[in-house]
Design goal:
The protein is an alpha/beta fold. About 45% of the residues lie in helices and about 15% in strands. It binds NADPH dihydro-nicotinamide-adenine-dinucleotide phosphate (NDP) and 2-hydroxyethylsulfonic acid.
């Protein structure tokens, strides 16, 4: 872990912030990226470490992503691990009632943003014949639920793209993992419900969700896994989350 250079997208809150804190404390050098630079600077100040580089980056902006990655200062440019964590859900309505802008935002962020960051960094990894990519998917990419529509579909994209990346990269010594968590209390539901904190809170009422620190621990486990193995995918849920049965619409 020591001095590995790790880029985390979406490090301003939730999983990304917890991952950054854990990895920096374990000696890694983390490029912590996201749109809210003020939060990243606060995080750096909190950690009092020169092992964190705050980087303002909107993953939806293709040109910015490529330019920013290509102009990283030399001693931060050899990225060993990419953690594609930036992502969001917008809305929880039936497909016929969703806002098309919400759908675009999820595809632009969860699919296209992840594509851009990956594509910008990959040639640097293949040139060094080493690297690791961890993509944050979701159980929503496997199990359907009411209102999950494009969010779930975007995470199914993350799952399949991860497996396909691995197929492309196995002979280049680049490991790829899709980490697919269930419900966790972060800012996720606040974003999903347009800033409605009360509604977001209700999602987790009476239920003990995954915590960001659980995900950070799993990320560390994946990074530390022996080099002779590749963890293809990990699915993890709260001990109080499980599957719903089929929905029979009775007449
Ligand atoms: P948070 O809302 O707490 O964090 C989301 C992060 O993504 C923020 O740092 C945000 O930063 C960043 N982000 C959003 N849009 C962009 C963008 N356009 N460019 C760059 N960064 C962006 O939620 P979580 O920590 O829960 O979410 C992290 C990931 O985990 C997401 O991919 C989510 O889909 C996934 N996930 C979440 C689960 C949950 O229940 N919480 C379960 C399974 C998966 P900023 O706004 O500053 O740009
Ligand atoms: C978020 C998990 O179950 O809220 O990816 O869709 S869930």
């Amino acid at each position: 872990m020591k001095n590995k250079i790790i880029l985390v997208s979406g490090a301003t809150s939730g999983f990304g912030e917890a991952i950054t804190i854990r990895l920096v404390k374990n000696g890694a050098r983390v490029i912590a990226s996201g749109r809210r630079l003020d939060r990243l600077i606060k995080l750096k100040n909190k950690l009092k470490s020169d092992k964190i580089l705050p980087l303002e980056l909107d993953v939806r902006d293709q040109d910015r992503v490529f330019n920013t990655i290509n102009s990283l200062e030399k001693n931060w440019s050899k990225i060993d691990v990419l953690i594609n964590n930036a992502g969001l859900a917008r809305g929880l309505n039936s497909s016929d009632k969703t806002e098309i802008d919400h759908w675009n935002e999820m595809v632009d962020t969860n699919c296209k943003g992840l594509m851009y960051v990956t594509r910008a960094i990959l040639p640097k990894m293949t040139k060094r014949n080493k690297g690791q990519i961890i993509n944050i998917g979701s159980v929503a990419g496997t199990y359907p639920y009411f209102g999950g529509n494009i969010y779930g579909a975007s995470k199914a994209f993350v799952h399949q793209f991860s497996l396909n990346l691995r197929a492309d990269l196995a002979d280049k010594n680049i490991r790829v993992t899709s980490l697919e968590p269930g419900a966790a209390e972060t800012e996720f539901s606040i974003v999903r419900f347009d800033g409605d904190k009360e509604k977001a809170k209700k999602t987790y009422n009476g239920f003990d969700p995954i915590e960001s620190k659980n995900i950070a621990e799993i990320i560390e486990f994946i990074i530390r896994s022996p080099l002779n193995i590749n963890i293809n995918r990990i699915e993890v849920m709260s001990n109080q989350q499980s599957f719903a049965g089929f929905n029979f619409i009775k007449k």
